[in-house]
Each structure stands twice: as C-alpha cells, then as structure tokens.
Amino acid sequence: MGLDHLWAGWRSSYIEEVSADSSALRPDSDGSLFERILNSGEPDHATFIVYRGPRCFAILNAYPYTSGHVLVMPNRAVPELEDLDDDEHAELWSTVRDAVVAIKAAYRCDGVNLGMNLGRAGGAGVPDHLHVHVLPRWDGDTNFMTTVAETRVLPEPLSLTWSKLRRAWPS
C-alpha cells in the first residue's frame, strides 16, 4: 500500500509572510511576539488567551487548522525545549494536559493532535518562542473545501472558541 500525499500549499503564503519580517519574531527589548501579546494589558477575550499560569499560558492559534486549536507555551521566550527550567517544563506539560481536557470537553472530538516545531528548519513559524499545538480532530474531518479548494472552513469565530475553551478549562 502506497502513501498518498495531500498538499496544503495555502500554508506557504502564511509562512513566507511571517518569515519575511523576522524582526517581529525575535525577542528584543519589547519581547517576543507571544510575550508582547501576553503582556499587552489587553483583556484575555481580546487577545484570545485561554489560560494564564505562573510560568505558562495557552492562547488560541490566530490561524487555526480547526476550531479549538490552542498554543501552549512558557511565559518567557524560550526557543528550545532543553532551555526550559524544570518548573517551566513541568508546568508546560501540565498545561498541555489541561488543554487536552478542555478541548475534549468543549468539542467532544474523536482525537487530539499535539505537536511542536522547533527551529525555523523544523517548521516553527515563531522560532524564538517554543509552543505546543493542541487541536481537536474528528473521524473524517477532511472535507471537499480543504482537499480540493485548499481552503479551511471554520464553523465558529475565535471569540466563540475562546468562550467554549475558557468555560471547559480545568480549575
């Protein structure tokens, strides 16, 4: 049995756009992209931060593969997994577990994908601030629009996704 490939070429324009202004991705005096969002002073519903912990937080992906797509990361910009201190490491994986629990409760999905892309060559869109992708999946969730039209159809706005996950987040 051969391995079939489905190409998602629409992603390349996003990756090129994000990569073009690498200064926006590097930590600087104002912090990384995610640190700036975390410390913006804006309310969580405006920044789509689902959870804030002492060392880690969870935020909705602004370019989700599907509704419920969350990014879990340390509060400080850390590019490599081995750069986390022990407390950050423990809290990161505890927060990933909580994200899975919230996603399963909010979306009653058939499965969950977890993933990390470390470094630009590893596919990281924001290589200076590691993050874990956590997203719900359903049996047969590939559809005509994704496969043929190279377009994702998201059934709800980010504001509704945020509300669902915030309510379902473990205490």
Task: Give the key terms.
15% strand, alpha+beta, 6 helices, 171 residues, 5-stranded antiparallel β-sheet, HIT family, subunit A
Biggest sheet statistics:
5 strands, antiparallel
In percent, how helical is the residue content?
25-40%
Strand order of the largest sheet: 1-2-3-5-4
Question: For this entry, what is the oligomeric state of its chains?
Answer: single chain
Please identify, by name, the CATH architecture: 2-Layer Sandwich
Low-confidence spans: pLDDT under 50, at least 5 residues? 22-28
Mean pLDDT: 84
- DSSP helix count? 6
Report on this model:
It is a single chain. Strands 1-2-3-5-4 form a five-stranded antiparallel beta sheet. The chain starts with 9 loop residues before the first helix and ends with a helix. It has six helices and five strands; from the N terminus they run αααβββαββαα. It has helices at residues 10-20, 33-38, 44-47, 86-107, 144-147, 158-168; strands at 49-52, 56-60, 70-74, 111-115, 132-137. The protein has a single domain, classed as 2-Layer Sandwich (HIT family, subunit A), CATH 3.30.428. Residues 22-28 have low confidence and may be disordered. The protein is of the alpha+beta class and 171 residues long.
